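Internal QA ticket QA-208
Title: Verify multi-chain structure generation after dependency bump
Assignee: T.L.

Test input:
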Amino acid sequence: MAGSAASKDSATSKNVIVKYLPVYFVLLAIAGMEIFLAYQHFPTGPLLAILLALAVCGGGLAVMYFMHLAEEPSSLFLTLIPATIFVLLMMNMFWSDSFRLLHMKPFPH
Amino acid sequence: MSEIDIAMHSQGGELAEGSPYRIPSRKLTMWLFIISDAITFGALLFGYGYLRTASSDWPTPFKFNPSILNVTIMTVVLITSSLTMLGAVDSAKIGNKAKTKRFLWSTILLGAIFAGLHIREWFGLIDEGVRLFQNPWGSPLFGATFFAITGLHLLHVISGVVALAVISRGFSRGWLTAGHVETTGLYWHFVDLVWMFVVPLVYLLNISK
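Actual output:
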């Protein structure tokens, strides 16, 4: 009886590993692709855009499947993710605005 | 009876509301911490991006061997540790303490390997003359941004390894629950997630071709 419960537990743990193996291999493939692309002779701007897009894909997979956000109530996703993206985009606005000071142009005339 | 009243009475009549988003408060707190930490890393990476763009002599020192090879191994190790962490969370949920402990210690071992490789990478750069505000190649801000971003990430990895060891001991002895293992797992996956952005932005955009 106890042996049967133990083997059932073992099967469940193996199942969860097997269930997430495709995500694991996709993440490894994304990492490999990033390294391959970094050695191609792309200009820095397009390379940055491609690498960022791949990183966002990898990050999205990790959040949705490894962190199980896909299985949580959708209200949690809708509260956390759009707010985070908004703050990051706004930060991007402020950082770029601060560059005016580097060029000694504190205020536009 | 209002929804709040129902929630209060469903908690054994105590004056307590149900957890927001129908998830345990511990998990919600960890999600809020992760979001704030993501914004901290976002600020550092944006700052680094603008400094790199503004500097005409930004160095590109990372050769395939040892730096990029090292980073590739570190990435594989960290993503694999996320998989073992999933096994630990699942084993904890079904109450298999021995298996949870094995998976947690596998994760700890992989985290320690990652930290060791990272420290080796740091010492390699320090030997080449990279300091916080100077380096032999170009913009002195390279060292400041590199050590700040990778150092904060390394601090997270080391903190995670310590937290996992505490959780493993607590879960084995019965004073911590599967919920604690799951919450620590969320943190560990987040550390993995940050690394997915650090590698392309800090290493791959600065490779020596």
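Spot checks passed. Residues 1-13 of chain B have pLDDT under 50 and may be disordered.
Status: verified.
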